[in-house]
Structures are given as structure tokens and as C-alpha cells.
Amino acid sequence: MKENKTKKTAVELVLIALVMLSVIRQFFLGSYHNMFLGILTLILFMVPQLIEKTVGVTIPAGLKTVILIFIFSAEILGEINAFYIKIPIWDTMLHTTNGFLMAAIGFALIDLFNRSERFSVKMSPYFVAFVAFCFSMTVGVVWEFFEFSMDWFFHTDMQKDWILPVISSVKLDPAGANNPVTVAVESVVINGEEWNLGGYLDIGIVDTMKDLMVNFVGAVVFSAIGIVYLKQRGKGRLASALIPKVNSPEDLQGGSSYAKGKNGAAGGNGPDTSQGGNSKGQKEKNHE
């Protein structure tokens, strides 16, 4: 535990220093919107610690590093330094990482339930990984809803536009049949002005589907790692560095009193089959 905290603190110190430098710089540039994004980044950096305290898990140093770098890359590099525009694949990389991270969070939550004494149903590694995958995809879809809503109501262009050199549509069939006609787009005229963009300006749909597909890739990769982790609990180095670990009663805050109510339980992981099991479970619930 101490070693993990030391690694976490080292990563946070470096990134916090960079973010604070960015906030100061944006202040002197008079860009208060970007300064707010920097402050928001500092707040988001506290999310891993908040998850650890509220959910009762320990986020490994490897996963925590990925989370912090993801936040830094999205807000400081992506938004403030316009990497989304300067580097075309930046958004794709972040959405892939997001799918990976959301699967990790979903995996930790379902694994927490799966190992809890309060739940009699135990799930197979494949089902746990499947639920983690579904959780990640659900978060990805909800985020795309958010992007669309911001673009529709506030004209923010969170769904980045794409240039499509070719259009294939049944609307172009002169016979009115259900036959798609493919047309190369050489020029577009908008309000009497010719736009030489090299194609048709797609509004959001390509970006949305691309984001969901790479989210799918990230979720699948983590789910596969999760299956290996559950089958070989804690043995794989890669899995151990990326899978959030459910805290034992002694590791939780106030763990001594928590553990006191669990005397007799084998290793604190098996279900309490003693006659007073229900009252013990209620005491644990009240303590939490």
C-alpha cells in the first residue's frame, strides 16, 4: 500500500506542476476559459482517490498513471493546446483509452460485488468481463449523447466534422428506387458561396461512430485482461498493474473495528454461514 501511494504521489506531483504552470500561463494570456479548464483538471486529478475511498478499492499505480495522463491529455493538451486539431488521431487515442478506463471501473465495481459477503450469487470471470465491457460501452454512448446535445443546443462542435469525398445515397437514385448512387463530391455551394473543402462536410456522424468503435476496442482489450486476472487471481504482472483491487477489511479506513465484526470468517472473503451472520452483516453495513 505504501509503495503504491509513493508512486502515485510522484506522478501526481509532476502532472500537478505542469497543470499549475498552464493555469498561470493562461491567466497572464487573459484566457480565463482555459484557466478554468486547468482548474477543472486539478479537480479531476482527485477522482482516483475519491473512488478508492468511496468504493473500497485500491487503484494500482499503473492504472492510476493511465487515468492521470488521460485527464492531462484530454484537458491540457487536447483542449488548451489544441492537440485535437493539430494531431488528427488525438481524439481517437483518447476515446480508445476511455473505453479501456471505463471497463476498468466497471470491472472493479462488479468484482467488488462478486467478492462481497453480502451477495450469495457468484459470477464467472467471463460474465464479470462482459458486464465491465457493457459498462464501458454504456458510458461511451452517454458521452456521445452529451457531445451531440452540446453541439445541438450550444453550437460547440464537440462532434468534430469530417470531410467526405464521396456520397452514397438512395436519395440520389433518379428512379426513386432503393438503389444507392455513389457520387464524388468535387465542390459544395453553401448560400451561394463555393466551399473547396475537397468533399462534403459531414456533421458529427463519422466522429460519433469512430469514437464508439475505438471505445469498443478499449473495452474489449481490458475485458480480456480482466478474464486473465480473475482466472489467475493477481498472478499476472500486467493485470495486477491495471486491475483495481478490492480492499480487505484491514485495509479499509477504520479497518480494525471493521475486522472485529468479522471474526471467524475464513479470510474475510467467504460468505458468513454462522447463525449470527445476518447481524454481523448489519453491523458491517452500519459501520460503513
**Major β-sheet profile:** 2 strands, antiparallel
Task: For the largest sheet, list the strands in their spatial order.
Answer: 1-8
**Quick check: average pLDDT?**
81
**Uncertain regions spanning at least 5 consecutive residues:** 1-7, 255-288
Count the E strands: 8
Number of domains: 2
Q: Could you give the distance between the termini?
A: 21 Å
Series of H and E elements:
HHHEHHHHEEEEEEHHEHH
**How much β-strand is present in the residues?**
5-15%
Please compute the radius of gyration using only Cα atoms: 24 Å
- Individual helix count: 11
Shape: flat
- Helical content stands at 55-70%
Class from helix and strand fractions:
mainly alpha
What report would you give on this structure?
With 288 residues, the protein is mostly helical. It has eleven helices and eight strands. It folds into two domains: 2-159 and 204-265 and 276-287, no CATH class; 162-202, no CATH class. 62% of the residues lie in helices and 8% in strands. A hairpin with a 2-residue loop joins strand 5 and strand 6 (193-195). The longest helix is centred in the middle third of the chain and has 30 residues, at 125-154. The protein is flat, with a radius of gyration of 24 Å.
Concise synopsis of the structure shown:
The protein is mostly helical and 288 residues long. The protein folds into two domains: 232 residues, no CATH class; 41 residues, no CATH class. It contains eleven helices and eight strands.
What is the strand and helix layout of this fold?
Layout: H1 2-29, H2 32-44, H3 47-56, E1 57-58, H4 61-80, H5 83-86, H6 90-114, H7 125-154, E2 162-164, E3 166-169, E4 181-184, E5 188-190, E6 193-195, E7 200-202, H8 205-231, H9 237-242, E8 245-246, H10 255-260, H11 277-287
Antiparallel strand pairs: 1-8, 2-7, 3-4, 5-6
